[in-house]
Specification:
The protein is mainly alpha-helical and about 375 residues long. It has one domain. The protein has 21 helices and no strands. α9 crosses α10 and α13 packs across α19. It is globular.
């Protein structure tokens, strides 16, 4: 009987505490939203399930928890804290991305660059709230709306914030359809939302092959600290576009990125143990992340309006919101909002230009932050 009582005293039913119950509920909510609302299910389901796993009470010393060296979860989490998973995600992303929209209208890259302003404004806000410069940089990068980039920066500059920053970053990526439309409507007029853009020109295969090579050289010379991200992004893209490495491209954009996404999401979720995650700083990070995302969206829209002052061919400002690098969700939101005002207006291909530019822009911003801060 003493043995039975001793065993029962070590179960989660006895040792569960209110903070852990709260985190388990959050994990269940994430899974529910992913299934019922289809908000980034490939990310939120692994993260939500990881949150539940990471907050089940256990007895320390048995190599179970994500922060216990030698444990299974700790081994997987090393891919996050050591910055291994984000470049691999970028490799798969590059193998999936078609840069034709950007190449057909190169000036749209300015919208991707403008959206990154939200990163640097949020850094100032984080410093004002008492965060250190490395912590502020890790929080500000949430404005890029790029989960892998966010994890890459925070794992290098503020490893203790990785779980909070990653959860915030991926949450706002999933909430793009809720966050962006009100900002888009607030900053544009009815006439601007109805602007129709000319069909994009056909991009040659030669241009598609040259772009990842030229893009790699230009961007990495500008921000060498971003080589792991940009190198993998453009490497994956040339595998896709060269036409002679289909097996490698297919592996990068299917099996490999799926495996890495599962491991990254699950381990990030498991790292949100209540005693490590439920802090006032985590709430501040979520609030600052929302501000970063909103500012980035607004900057892309406002810069598109500014470009219309000087450009003969008008740009629909709605595509400016796609300058954040939530690919392709942000581009789809531009299309969705535009068609509410004119069902014959098709903005998706145009919005993909600033959208993929935002991926490159957020990686460059990450490299600049790493070079300046680290």
């Amino acid at each position: 009987m003493n043995g039975v009582l001793d065993l029962f005293s070590k179960t989660g039913f006895v040792n569960i505490e209110l903070p852990s119950i709260l985190m388990i509920c959050i994990g269940i909510i994430l899974i529910t939203l992913a299934i019922t609302k289809k908000w980034e299910p490939l990310l939120l389901i692994p993260i939500g399930f990881g949150v539940i796993v990471g907050n089940i009470p256990f007895e320390p010393g048995h190599m179970i928890g994500v922060y216990e060296p030698g444990s299974f979860l700790n081994f997987i989490y090393s891919g996050v804290k050591d910055g291994i998973f984000p470049p691999l995600i970028f490799l798969g992303l590059g193998a999936m991305t078609d840069f034709s929209s950007l190449l057909a209208n190169p000036k749209l890259i300015l919208l991707g660059a403008a959206a990154q302003v939200g990163i640097f404004i949020t850094i100032l806000g984080a410093i004002a709230l008492g965060f250190t410069l490395p912590e502020a940089a890790s929080i500000g990068i949430i404005g890029g709306a790029d989960g892998p980039t966010t994890i890459f920066v925070s794992s290098n500059l503020a490893p203790h914030l990785v779980s909070a920053v990653a959860i915030a970053g991926y949450s706002y990526m999933a909430l793009v359809p809720l966050i962006q439309p009100p900002i888009m409507k607030l900053l544009t007029t009815d006439k601007e939302r109805r602007i129709k853009m000319k069909p994009l020109r056909q991009v040659s295969q030669r241009e598609k092959i040259i772009f990842p090579i030229a893009g790699l050289i230009i961007t990495c010379f500008l921000a060498p600290a971003a080589i792991p991200l940009l190198g993998c992004l453009f490497f994956g893209n040339i595998l896709k576009e060269c036409g002679v490495a289909d097996r490698l491209a297919n592996t990068a954009r299917t099996s490999m990125i799926d495996i890495v996404t599962i491991l990254l999401g699950f381990s990030v979720g498991a790292s949100t143990q209540a005693n490590m995650f439920l802090k006032w700083s985590s709430i501040q990070i979520f609030l600052l992340g929302a501000c970063a995302f909103a500012i980035a969206t607004a900057c892309g829209i406002l810069f598109a309006k500014l470009m219309n002052v000087f450009c003969k061919e008008k740009i629909n400002p709605l595509i400016g919101s796609a300058g954040v690098s939530a690919v392709p969700m942000a581009a789809r939101v531009s299309q969705m909002v535009g068609q509410k005002y004119d069902k014959s207006n098709y903005l998706l291909l145009h919005a993909m230009g600033p959208n993929v530019a935002g991926v490159i822009g957020s990686a460059i911003a990450a490299g600049i932050l790493l070079a300046m801060v680290k």
